[in-house]
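Thread title: Can someone regenerate the structure for this chain?

I was given the following input by a collaborator and told the matching structure tokens would be attached. They weren't. Posting the sequence so someone can regenerate them.
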Amino acid sequence: MYNGKKIIVVLPAYNAALTLERTYREIPFDLVDEVILCDDASRDNTVELAKQIGIRHVLVHEKNKGYGGNQKSLYNKALELGGDIIIMLHPDYQYTPKLIPSMVNIIGEDLYPVVLGSRILGRGALAGGMPLYKYIANRFLTFVQNVLVSYKLSEYHTGYRAFSREVLESINFNANSDDFVFDNEMLSQIIYAGFHIAEVTCPTKYFEEASSINLPRSIRYGLGVLRVSFMHRLQRWGVVRLKMYAAASN
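Best answer:
Regenerated them for you:
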């Protein structure tokens, strides 16, 4: 708990057996009340390992629903369990759980309702092993997004995020894509709804066991990001009225 707020960490897992325990052991359990893992039809023993190391809430998708579909299950479960601050942490150990106290503090003190762990703030992205093409794509897409959505973030593509309950109950995340572009749709919804976003510097770690999408999927993701940003601008202008920007009915 923090200031009477229940803290829940959610782990979207897919073939995470090699890195799950390292990630889990670094979670600050003097602060975190619950951990929820959702396994998206992994081909390894992620589910068995999650139960073995003590994760009480393990959700299992019998068929792969995608990265976005995984997060939908996690956020809905976190809200059901009464979470007040929900942190999405990848179990592939690319993002350090040691930043959780800082992210919780920002939301728990009512400074910002959303916190992103940014790999771009500072100079650690390339030094931490981010491939050059991904770094360049990240910078280009972020620039375009900042222009189109009229906001300013160092990056929109981090998978390390913390939300207040109010944010998750206000945006219609269940209307979003089940694919990787879900993350960007969420940020678009958050900005459109008028919530402010904080960023904290996050070390970058790329290594063999960490998850990564291939080049064709990266290209599809980039095109999806541009589409979301253009739709956000058209929604602002009143040209379109999209369901994803409607108030949530959670």
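The mean pLDDT is 94.
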